[in-house]
Amino acid sequence: MALNLFEDKGCALDRQRFTWKELVQPPISKLDDDAFTRMRVILMNGIEMEALRFSHSCARMNGALQLPLAQIRRVEQHQASMVNGLLGADHSTLETTIGYEQLAIEVTAVVAQNEPDPYLAQVYRFGMLEDFDHLYRYTALLDRLEGKDANNILQCYTDVVPGRPTSVEHRAPLDDLREHYDRSNAAPISKLHALTIMSSEQQTHNFYMNVGPLFADPVARLLYAEIASIEEQHVTQYESIIDPNETWLEKWLLHEANEVYNYYGCVQQESNPRIKAIWERCLDYELGHLHVVSELFKQHERRDPAEILPAALPEPIKYESQREFVRQVLSQEVDLRALGTQFVDKSQEGAASQQYRNHMNSSGSPTDTVAAGYQWSPGTELARRTQLAYEDALARDKELTR
Prior knowledge:
This protein is mainly alpha-helical and about 400 residues long.
């Protein structure tokens, strides 16, 4: 049964407390937990971090809202710590990166299929194909740098093949902006979709910027730098589809509703009972936040939250493999490029993006370098080389015994 945003009040803000042990709980297992549990952890961390960034920006521009923003932000900070801590040290940085890209592919694919606005659905498909290629490049790096098979993380949910090549994804800023939805007419789910994907891409960008310089391998450092640049383009793309005419309180209300929406989806589908209890607690807290902001919306804007929010939550994002949809989009749209706010065949791409890309790639593209001659198959290159060496040795032994 769907939640009613106006009747389900959740936990009152003054009762939302944590201890340090609650903030840092045992992490999920890299191998034993379902890959979609990891994806939910990464997504909700990104959504919590977006809530914090928005809250600070709003406070700097709205003195009358600073206290309630600070009160809710403190809880958001603790929720972010609790969620982010669920990714444990058994994941290497590259394995966590594989999880980030798998999330970008699977969740964006679901959003693209459920988005009622055809133009926005196209925007999501366009970005999804680029993240799909990022997964392929990082998989090659994981294999070659750590000798690990990315499928240990992907668990057979997601294909590992090239998408729209990362080296051709670099665009001039004017070709990263999109048409925004109309806040007065857009479906509520369109607004939630935009916030969800923008939050996810923003978290991915920040993660790559933070961890890339920590690698000693020069190819890895270059690879993270190149893909982080594309992730910044994605943040620009997705934030531009959000109507800039929404008021600060309207945006705050939507942020809280989006957290409720996504935690509700996590609760409905989580397979790990311990993690599900965390999602349930966060959902209860976010309903409390939504109630507080709804009252502020009424007080300061003299408007009914029902103008912005639906009474019942839309159907949550489904966490399941989108392999067939991704394959279909790949076959039909891999050659699309951006020209201003529109999507065109690569033969019609504008001069500005071509010039920008040619300069960036003038000394080579790290994403091309890392995947040169690479093709994923079960196991690793080291395992395949070992098998080939073994077979070669057997052949030599047979030759000697003749």
